[in-house]
Specification:
There is one protein chain. Helix content is 46%, strand content 21%. It has an 8-stranded mixed β-barrel with strand order 12-13-15-16-17-18-19-20, surrounded by 4 helices. Strands 3-2-1-6-5-4 form a 6-stranded antiparallel sheet. A 5-stranded mixed sheet has the order 8-9-7-10-11, with helices on both faces.
Length: 605
């Protein structure tokens, strides 16, 4: 070394030798300390918002006591006093050889404010700082400070990236990928000594809260739920997958049973909801939670997340809210659904789907005035699946749209054949799935079908359910208007089963309303149902809307409906859904159903 002026070059050379920043700083401090015969070089940095310095790097003689990793808290006044000691060049030092303390030299580490110091201390009080030493150490201090600030910026950037990639910005919970990694590690570490389960929960009516109180309040609720989750010592990691859907890995007591798990989680949910309902009285907030115990350590954690989600979905269908634990029965149901899912593409390919027709009978004349097309699935082995087995499943997967258009085209072919042969033809109604609401070309596609088969639009009736309007009111109204403008017949199915039936009549242009079959449950019609049915029929007549009542199974029901002036009835009393061939026979023979007159007592309560 040819003098103190080479010390900065030494530092830069030391830094360039390794990509390990910590190792480079440690090597430099040792070389500088040895060259200048120092007793200590200490770097202290401020890592928190508090007025505290922590020793992050240090070199000292063996006989000296190290302060590495120690923290030195200060008051704001003490911090300000220290900061004021630095001169315009950001350092201060002692040169008084009279004191018994060795001379020291401080360099400030500055961002916008003071964020740390570099401290050089001589070995002996007898030797003051030489001018050349101070100039060399200034350069070393400035370069070191700059390197530390760059490293500090890299660390902050890494933390910011880590926060973006690993934490949800709304709730500060883990992102789903980060959760899966952490949960997997925890399961592998704890599985042999601790029972665990995945909890999959969502907040019911969250969308309504968002729409009613605003997105800011919605985010506040999500943060409150996340905070509540994190406070529980049983939840060892958690994530918000999307919207109001949360997943947790939770510890279970050794003696936990499905019943005790449900009871504990319901209690936790009710405790949280009690305070939130006071804040949002217009929303009926509930929580649905599915649980799946982690019974294998080497299985992908997503497997248990899917099971917990399946339990949650099943719970919402059956009960709406609460807690449900995944069990063997549900596992069998999922296996059955998966088999059906795999069979659906082949079913289309092999033409296993077909439709049947249920007659609609005019009560005044007893004649068939229309029919409803209902889809059926006959497997290649001859077995036939009930619609309840595959319709809900196809609605979930989106295959229902393909199935609906299969029925639409099949009905058009059937009507075309009868028209071509000059045979009596009746309007046939078909169902509209909610999935069609997202298809802007739905009406145009249907219009293309009737043009292709040369069918008058009045012969194709579209049945829209109340739930269609409850879930997506604006899109459903738009679809209804477009169908009406295209001259199709429109009916509102399940009328009276929901909460907004009357409100829908104000917004829709309808040809038919179908009174829900729930009003005809039981062998005889009770007084309340009679009053409601009479009122619906009277109102519909004033609005010039035809009334059809479905689900009529007994003579008494049919006689009452005729006396109440209901126009059309559809039900097992007249006919179950029948094949096309059977319907052709009824139409070709001009079948008339004879209905005996009803006794007067039917009209009274």
């Amino acid at each position: 070394m040819n003098g103190n002026e080479n010390i900065p070059h030494l530092f830069l050379a030391t830094l360039s030798k390794t990509k390990d920043f910590d190792k480079s700083i440690s090597q430099l401090l040792e070389k500088v300390g040895t060259y200048f015969d120092l007793s200590r070089i200490t770097i202290r940095e401020r890592n928190t918002l508090e007025y505290t310095l922590k020793t992050t790097y240090e070199w000292c003689l063996h006989e000296e006591e190290s302060s590495l990793n120690q923290s030195f808290p200060m008051t704001k006044s003490e911090w300000d006093t220290m900061a004021q000691q630095f001169d315009d060049e950001f350092f201060f030092y002692s040169t008084n050889a009279v004191t018994e303390k060795p001379p020291f030299f401080h360099v400030a580490i500055l961002e916008k404010d003071l964020v740390g110091t570099i401290f050089f201390e001589k070995r002996s009080a007898q030797y003051p700082w030489a001018k050349e030493e101070l100039e060399a150490l200034k350069c070393v201090g400035y370069i070191t400070a700059n390197a530390l600030l760059k490293n500090r910026a890299y660390r902050q950037a890494d933390r910011a990236i880590d926060k973006i990639t690993h934490f949800d910005p709304v709730t500060n919970l883990l992102t789903y990928p980060a959760f899966c990694d952490q949960a997997t590690n925890l399961v592998q570490a704890l599985f042999k000594k601790q029972r665990m389960a995945i909890l999959y929960a969502d907040i019911i009516n969250f969308k309504y809260l968002n729409d009613t109180y605003g997105a800011t309040e919605g985010d506040r609720l999500l943060r409150a739920f996340a905070h509540y989750i994190k406070r529980s010592p049983k939840n060892i990691c958690a994530t918000r997958i999307f919207s109001d859907t949360f997943v947790m890995l939770a510890l279970l007591d050794e003696k936990s049973t499905p019943e005790s798990i449900q009871k504990r989680i319901n209690g936790i949910e009710n405790h949280f909801l009690k305070s939130q309902r006071l804040l949002y009285p217009r929303c009926n907030l509930e929580i649905a939670c599915g649980v799946s115990e982690v019974d294998e350590s080497k299985v992908n954690i997503v497997h248990f997340v899917d099971k917990a989600n399946a339990a949650r979905k099943d719970l919402k269908i059956r009960f709406g809210a609460g807690c449900s634990v995944f069990n063997k029965e549900l596992e069998k149901q999922i296996e059955k659904e998966n088999k059906l899912l795999n069979a659906i593409p082949n079913a289309f390919e092999n033409q296993e789907f077909f439709f049947v027709l249920q007659p609609k009978v005019a009560l005044e004349t007893g004649k068939i005035t229309g029919a409803e097309a209902l889809v059926r699935w006959r497997r290649n082995d001859g077995s036939q699946l009930p619609p309840s087995d595959f319709i809900p499943l196809m609605e979930k997967t989106g295959d229902i749209t393909r199935l609906d258009f299969f029925v639409y085209e099949s009905v058009c072919k059937y009507l075309h054949e009868r028209l071509r042969k000059g045979l009596r033809t009746i309007p046939i109604s078909v169902n509209v799935s909610r999935r069609h609401l997202k298809n802007p070309l739905f009406v145009e596609t249907v219009e293309a079908l009737i043009l292709q088969y040369d069918i008058p639009p009045e012969l194709l009736e579209f049945e829209l359910t109340e739930t269609l309007f409850l879930d997506n009111p604006e899109e459903a109204i738009f679809l209804q208007q477009n169908l009406h403008n295209a001259k199709f017949t429109l009916s509102l199915d399940d009328f009276g089963s929901g909460y907004s039936s009357l409100n829908l009549l104000k917004k829709m242009t309808l040809d038919v309303i179908k009174i829900d079959k729930s009003f005809l449950e039981g062998e005889s019609i009770n007084c309340v149902d009679k009053v409601i049915i009479d009122s619906i029929i009277h109102m519909a007549k004033l609005l010039k809307i035809t009334v059809l009542c479905e689900g009529a199974e007994t003579l008494e029901q049919v006689q009452y409906l005729r006396k109440a002036h209901c126009a059309i009835v559809q039900g097992f009393y007249f006919s179950k859904p029948i094949s096309i061939e059977a319907m052709n026979i009824l139409l070709d023979t001009d079948k008339i159903f004879v209905i005996p007159n009803a006794p007067e007592k039917l009209l009274s309560c």
